Amino acid sequence: MKNFFYIVYLTVLPAVAMAQTENAAIRAGNKLYHQGQFDKALPEYQKAIEQNPKNAVARYNLANARYRTTKYDEAQKSFDEVIENTTENSYKEKSYYNKGVALSKQQKLLESIEAWKNALKLDPKDEDARFNLQKALTELKKQSQPKEQKQQQQKQQQKQKQQNKLDKKKIEQYLKSLEQKEQEVQRKIQQNRSRSVTQPEKDW
Questions:
Q1: Cα 168 to Cα 198: distance, rounded to the nearest angstrom
Q2: pLDDT tens for residues 85-107?
Q3: How many helices (H) and strands (E) does the chain have?
Q4: Which of 2, 60, 81, 92 is a plausible cystine mate for 128, CB 3.0–4.6 Å?
């Protein structure tokens, strides 16, 4: 799996007027993030979002911090919020990509494939998204093959059981036939003995 996108700095933002408190909160969050204090970075980003709910940077960095705290489900929802609340394709594309990574961590393969497809629609040149998508599709194929093989095995086993039942039935019929023949032979022997006993002796 390719690397997760890192947080966005204020220096790479488009020239948009932002309140001083937003800037300060995001800078504080970024500092804590790079120190590995992701839990402490979360409230800083949330503070910036409270100041400006449309702040894509704060939302995006919040989602990344949630991912780093292994709260993958929350991170996924946060990336969805970025996608819904921004008109900037760069943030949408990165959020789709990271959402795919968060989903793969939750073993949600089909959903992660969909997320990476969306990322590539926005940026067909994103080689990381393409790499992850290809890897996920290969994994999906691997998972579906054993399922098909298992179904085939089950069919084979059922067929074998039916065959065994038929074989057992044939054996029973054969044994019954042998038993009947033996009984018939015994009856004939009994009849012959009966005749020999009742037959009168020859008068010389």
A1: 45
A2: 888 899 999 999 999 999 999 99
A3: 7, 0
A4: 2
User: 199: exposed, middle or buried (C-beta count within 10 Å: 0-12, 13-18, 19+)?
Assistant: exposed
Task: Put residue 36 in one of left, alpha, beta given phi > 0 → left and psi -120 to 50 → alpha.
Answer: left
Measured CA to CA in angstroms, residue 113 lies from 1, 62, 98, 133, 136 at distances of 13, 23, 12, 6, 6
State the angle between helix axes of 127-198 and 89-105 in degrees (0 to 180), rounded to the nearest 10: 30
Distance CA(162)–CA(169), nearest Å, equals 11
Complete DSSP assignment for 31-89? HHHHTT-HHHHHHHHHHHHHH-TT-HHHHHHHHHHHHHTT-HHHHHHHHHHHHHH---H
Tens of pLDDT, residue by residue over 15-51, are 344 456 778 899 999 999 999 999 999 999 999 999 8
| Cα–Cα distance measured from residue 160 to residue 20, given in angstroms and rounded to the nearest whole number | 76
Domain 10-141: CATH superfamily, name plus number: Tetratricopeptide repeat domain (1.25.40.10)
Tokens of 38: 């992701």
